[in-house]
Amino acid sequence: MNKHGEAIARFAKHKSTHGLKSSDKRSFVVDHFIQADRHFTVEELYFEVKKLRPEISYSTVYRALKLLAKCGLASESMFGETVSRYEPVHSSAHHDHLVCNKCGRIIEFENDKIEKLQKDVARNYDFLVSAHRLELYGLCKKCRRKKAL
Amino acid sequence: MNKHGEAIARFAKHKSTHGLKSSDKRSFVVDHFIQADRHFTVEELYFEVKKLRPEISYSTVYRALKLLAKCGLASESMFGETVSRYEPVHSSAHHDHLVCNKCGRIIEFENDKIEKLQKDVARNYDFLVSAHRLELYGLCKKCRRKKAL
DNA sequence: TATGAAATTGCAATTCATTTTCATAATTGT
DNA sequence: ACAATTATGAAAATGAATTGCAATTTCATA
Fold this sequence. Notes:
Two copies of one chain form a homodimer. The first copy, chain A, has helices at residues 3-17, 24-36, 42-52, 58-70, 112-124, 141-148, and strands at residues 40-41, 74-77, 85-88, 96-100, 106-109, 128-139. Chain A has 149 residues and is an alpha+beta fold. Chain A folds into two domains: 3-88, Arc Repressor Mutant, subunit A, CATH 1.10.10.10; 96-148, Ferric-uptake regulator, C-terminal dimerisarion domain (Dna Ligase, domain 1). The N and C termini of chain A lie far apart (47 Å).
């Protein structure tokens, strides 16, 4: 089963174990989020969905994202903005982010060495880590070029 | 000159270069923040200040913190909460954080190796870094113990 | 010391994203 | 089809951040 299929299945399972009912609209939002496979604010996802299904409300999108977060298919974070972003959670390794202050692009990266050093730090402080975030803010490749012109 | 003296001086300089006037109330807030030398939300600082100087309003505290942030003596961040926190900026090297999810304690640490690896990552993506944040969330030493009981 | 332009303050009002409420509609098990 | 429960949309509520404005204070200059 592909990655998206897994996610869909996981959502279905969450529904059945939590006594949720099916809904066309919610399914549409969930599928769209999973297919798109990128970061969204509630508003961004809402506007994309609205183009295709204008009858779907902000509330439904909002609640769908919350639900995705609950069943572990999306994670919520702030990226230094005042709005929350939801990003798809992949079964793969944890990743960190490069956030472009100019165009807003978010680039994911993984770095095992950094992960390991983080564990070392935690051990030094006798700290039990359950989650972490690492974000580098600045200018992405494209925006550096633009700036140079 | 000690660390606090430096900060006070820097604030005074910012005032003079920006045509700001002196004010007892603002000075009190600023001094308290600098002396305390720890993380605050606006509300937390407001309540502490209010105990000693009840006539000082929330607005004044709010604006004082904004001002401190502008002149580089405080930095604003979210630490996964819905409220902003202001932390004193030390002239020393950049530091990262361990955030205890239980008691809210925030521990600072520095790690040059991690900093260096971050630069490597950025270089790989042709990304120009202007700021970064690294936070490890979990349980601090004390809370781990409590949990064990 | 008196003056006036400019900054500061407190309070209330606004903004803005998030979250909840509630009446109505849709879904599911019997 | 019925009853019970969940989902939905629109509007209202919430919560923190921010601003507008009138009153007050500061400070350089007269």
